[in-house]
Amino acid sequence: MRKLLLFLGLSFTLTSFAQEPVKVTDLLKIRSIGDIRLNKDGSQAVYTVTSIEQESDTKASKWDYKYSTQIWLTPTDG
Fold first, then answer.
1. What is the total count of domains within the chain?
2. d(CA 22, CA 65)
3. N or C: which end of the chain has fewer CB within 10 A?
4. Domain for residue 29, yes or no?
5. Angle in degrees, CA 70, 61, 51, rounded to 5
6. Of 72, 30, 34, 71, nearest to 51 (Cα)?
7. Which element (helix H / strand E) includes 6?
8. Residue-wise pLDDT tens digits, 46-56
């Protein structure tokens, strides 16, 4: 719930300063960070990043999109 409120607050703030209205294609640029976990010694973090991508199937129309989730691993030492 807190993530949703933060997202909505940031969206409102960013759109209030925008020179142009938000377009549907702008939503494709948004990536959301999912669950974040640390390993036992805290030296690495793993998290998920979800984005919207155009469907790669050749039979799909230009309006077909899918959610893609990737798992990222990163060191936490700075």
1. 1
2. 18
3. C
4. yes
5. 20
6. 30
7. helix 2-17
8. 999 998 887 77
Is 71 inside a domain boundary?
yes
- Which H/E stretch holds residue 2? helix 2-17
Range of the domain at 62: 23-78
If you write DSSP's letter for every residue of 17-63 in order, what string do you get?
Answer: H-SS---GGGGGG--EEEEEEE-TTSSEEEEEEEEEEE---TTS-TT
Q: Is residue 17 part of a domain?
A: no
Tokens of 7: 């997202």
**pTM for this structure?**
0.58
10 in helix, strand or coil? helix
Instruction: Confirm whether 69 is domain-assigned.
Output: yes
- Are 49 and 36 in contact by the 8 Å Cβ rule? The answer is no
